Amino acid sequence: MPSNLIxxxxxxxxxxxxxxWRALEVLGDVPTLLILESIWLGDSRFEKIKTRTCLSKPLxxxxxxxxxxxxxxxxxxxxxxxxxxxxRLTEKGRALFPVTMMLFRWEKAxxxxxxxxxxxxxxxxxxxxxxxxxxxxxxxxIVAPQDIEWREGPxxxxxxxxxxxxxQHRNRQAIAENLSLFTASAELLGDRWAGLAMRAVFTGLxxxxxxxxxxxxxxxxxxxxLAWLVEHGFLRAALYQTGPDRFAYHATEKSLDYLxxxxxxxRWGDCYYGSEEGPPVILHHxxxxxKLDIYAGCQNCKGELALANIEMRIGE
Length: 316
Hints:
Number of strands: 14
Distance between the termini: 45 Å
Largest sheet: 3 strands, antiparallel
Oligomer: single chain
Order of helices and strands: EEHHHHEEHHEEEEEHHHHHEEHHEEE
Radius of gyration: 20 Å
Number of helices: 13
Helix content: 25-40%
Shape: globular
């Protein structure tokens, strides 16, 4: 991916357009993930969501409103006096399901709590227990990070970052107590700053100043996120200069295995937040040479996993 599209416009910093950036503005928040998971697991009413997530009523109400404004969920009146609503995924919300599948896949492999994650996915179309895999829709092969080529897309341009202010939620115990599908992965996806730092590294930006320019975040926030990503094994810091010490940041095996989460998130962002010109970035699959349209596939039959064709079973 091109790394030279960074400019200054007066006092405003411009950063490159990115569908991952836009998607993280909607999803890069732990309470939002808690609420979405609750809805994915069948909780459509406010009290049910509150019971599962253990979030406060004002916080749930605010996040539900934001999800509705962004078209991810819809409100459906089921009681008139007093008015009560059910919250259901829209088509846009259901299109996020591949993100859930890639989070589930990563969680099974890397979460320290994975032994407690007793959920199994059964694919109705082949009748077998399945593990989701990132697959190329052209050749139906599993997509490996080294087989992805990033190219400029027609929608690549510049934008002024406008980040919604949010309180940081990074509490593993609280996340683990409330989430059923993913815990460790929610810490990363639920922190958009960490997600943007990872995006920069994946696209060839390894030094602090370049990551800072690419993301448009404050330097103290970036320092904190890079330290956290190194501490938790997502990035490796390599000293390249002394006096003062400066480091380059590189992806580890753990973070490379997380890349499919960002790729399906990018696909969703391209679909719902792309410009008229097209996506900012186009991925190509080196194995088959085709444009990469990634999907969450069944490891057995390679069919696409969707809400309508899987059963989720949670153990005791």
